[in-house]
Specification:
The protein is of the alpha/beta class. The chain has 6 helices and 14 strands. The chain has a single domain, classed as Rossmann fold (3-Layer(aba) Sandwich). Strands 1, 4, 5, 8, 9, 10, 11 and 12 form an 8-stranded mixed beta sheet that branches. Strands 2-3 form a two-stranded antiparallel ribbon. It has a two-stranded antiparallel ribbon with strand order 6-7. The radius of gyration is 18 Å and the shape is globular. Bound molecules: uracil (URA). Uracil (URA) binds next to helix 6. Uracil binds next to helix 6.
Length: 216
């Protein structure tokens, strides 16, 4: 797996990440969603550099210019519900992308033990396509593994790109072992710790609740 951690270089991305972490600023759910979307846009730009391109001639009013446009067929799959603002950010950059949605939630048997339940899937065929799997918080990696097991039955994908906003080192180690060798992982930033409940520390809290409100 190739890992791309965008916080290795200072950029305006740091501002968006700082705002989604900030316990005061994150009270503004609209700003939280918009910042995740902006991070998705930046990650998309970076990811686009790894895609296949083909020649294209643009006709301008004054002449012709040869360029290269993305040739791969892309499918974007987001893990509900926290993945939705990240999904929108990626969608803003890939006009022709097809869309898939999958649900995954933690079913707790105790405070510290849980299994991942996948109950909903809507997807086009993944045959010969590049799958971009978006999940804002890569904690243990177990939800990504659970959704991948379902998605890989939906066609023989050409390649997988995983996009996350904050990743825990433990989650990165897990996905590096779990996913095919040619997979790319794109993360805006990396945190060192996970707490006993599987939350990223310092992280930001519960991304789904911050974007859409708390749940029962
Ligand atoms: N999901 C979240 O929303 N936050 C975490 O820290 C881990 C998983």
């Amino acid at each position: 797996m190739t890992i791309h951690n965008l916080d290795k270089t200072n950029s305006v991305l740091n501002h968006f990440i700082a705002e989604i972490r900030d316990r005061e600023i994150q009270k503004d759910a609209m700003r939280f969603r918009r910042n995740i979307e902006r991070i998705g846009e930046i990650l998309s730009y970076e990811l686009s550099q790894e895609l296949g391109f083909k020649d294209y001639n643009v006709q301008t009013p004054l002449g012709e210019k040869k360029t290269q446009l993305v040739s791969d067929q892309l499918v974007l799959c987001s893990v509900l519900r926290a993945g939705l603002p990240l999904h929108q950010g990626i969608l803003n950059y890939f006009d022709q992308i097809e869309n898939a949605f999958i649900s995954a939630y933690r079913l707790h048997s105790s405070d510290e033990e849980f299994e991942i339940k996948v109950e909903y899937l809507a997807t086009p065929s993944l045959d010969n396509k590049i799958l971009i799997l978006a999940d804002p918080m890569l904690a243990t990696g177990s939800s990504l593994a659970a959704v991948y097991e379902v998605l890989k039955k939906m066609g023989h994908m050409k390649q997988l790109h995983i996009v996350a906003v904050i990743a825990a080192e433990k989650g990165i180690d897990f996905v590096s072992q779990y996913f095919p060798e040619n997979t790319h992982l794109w993360v805006a930033t990396v945190d060192q710790e996970l707490n006993s409940k599987g939350y990223i520390v310092p992280g930001l809290g519960d991304a789904g609740d911050l974007a859409f409100g708390s749940k029962l």
